[in-house]
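Structure ticket #2291
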Amino acid sequence: MQQNDRRPFLIICLLMFIFMAFNNWMFPPKGSTSATEQVQKEVVIQETAAPLTFKKSTLSKKDSKPYVLKNDALQVVFSSQDGAVNEINLAIDGHQGNKSIINPIRFDKKVASDSPTNGYFPLETGYVKQGKKTETLDREMGGYTPFLRRSTDQKGNQVMAFHFVNDEGNPVEQEFVVSSFEADKIVFEGSVQGVPTRKSFEIASPYLIKLKVESERPLDEVYLSSGVPEVELISGGSQPKIQYLKQGPKKNKVTNVKLPKEGIEVEEGHEKWISTGNGFFGMIIQPLTGSNSSSFIVQKVSGEEAPTRLALIDKENQPYPEKNYPGYEVLVPASLGGSASEWTMFVGPYDKSILAQADKQLAVGAESGLGAQFILAQNSVGFFSFITEPFTKLLSMLLDLFHMITGSWGFSIILLTLALRIMLYPLNAWSIGSMMRMQDAAPEVEKIKNRYKDDKHKQHIETMKLYKEKKCNPLAGCFPLVIQMPFLFAMFDLLKTSFQLRGAPFIPGWIDNLTEPDVLFTWSTHIPFFGTQFHLLPFLLGGAMYLQTKLSKILNPQTTLSEQQQQMQSMGSITNLVFIFIFYNMPSGLNIYWLSSTLLGMAQQVWMNYRYKKKKANVSVIK
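Resolution: structure written out below.
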């Protein structure tokens, strides 16, 4: 084909290509969408998506007064402008005729006397729902102990809970008004970073709170704050603790979070819940929507930014300075994979019966039937918990049993000590018997030393040979203390985890709280080591331990002690003094246990000494 003949063919092909392209553009095949139409379609979808509708409410006025939801167990105080929680206060037993397991403690009374304004609950006059009417709720003195109120009336800013913040804990742009207020439910409507948002709180049962956050689109990089728990002193120090329940292949495992020394720490992949507590009380946050595996943030908050109420006590001497009591806050993602997120929160005492009741309530309707397993939050918290946990469980069962019999936690501790002494009687008897045989062998040991005074090696060999013949062990005296160490640590853990002992009195006016030191009398001027209180139990314990070291000489005045035994007695006297310093700020319950154990040990020593002398006398008569 010649070049001129090709031109018509090329023109026809070009015209056909233009026609087909025009036809596809004007009449696209079924199922396909043009770029312009796709954009329009997306716009239509966004425009036709159901927006978050806000209902007009007479409560949507700007008002600085807080709103309060409460029942027999909780008082939850909300900021009307921020849509967040200012305070969560726990009702004390006997308040307004209710029955609670929370007893008042010395700090409740001390704060009210040293700073009366901070003894009121709530801190400010607010609103409460009575029937269908919204009425003013006047502040009342006492009746509650604060869990989330790490702020005093002298401070300008409060550390709020369930506030929208960024990943550094700073509040993001947000504005809310109260749109609905009922006796057990409050709804806030507004916006977060320009996104229309609704936040609903509901008290579901005595210690359970439900939270629902709805927004027109997910709140990316926005978090909800947990607030900072108030300080609870355990053995003279605060015990903040954050943990979460992670789902394992065979069973769920509670993991402790390492608290950051400064700034924030990101924890990846939690599962069922996150817990933040202070030893006796805690908050457990359980997400109900989303994958439940998103990361959360732990942030350290300085004591100056979140002051504890203890800083109000005895301001002249400042026994509890703010800087010594920092707090820790948990930040959880505000959107759990969608525009509507829900949580259930437990806020209350970490008592096994209360936690078990919450699990039972949450198990209703749950597919697994296991509930939330909140009860796992009250586990052993000591340094040696991996060793003492089985001992702690045994002691807890026995303690509950003895309390059912006596009705007194103090007498229960004494009976528990007696039970331990009975269980350990054979080992202690072997140890005491070995010590007695060593005393009998002491004169012969002195003869060996004189005979081989120039040969230390021979002296040692003959002495060990004599001990073997007499069936005594120089180290046997240390065995009772070593054997009791796991039980001592277990008892220490038990006093931290047994909420029943908090505020439980034994001898009113002296031992008013088994989880605090006893107070015989107080004074106003601060004295180093003693502070402003005198604790008698540690000195009684030191005296009993000193008497125990001298008991062998008292029972057997004619016995000559070996040089080694004399050295052990001297070391024992120094140890007694050290124990007074160690136990001075320990809980009175622990002092009662150790004192009872020492006195029972002395009684066993007297009994063993009597039997040993009687046995020796019988042997002499036979000979």
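Closing remark: Confidence is low (pLDDT under 50) at residues 1-5, 7-12, 22-49, 56-60.
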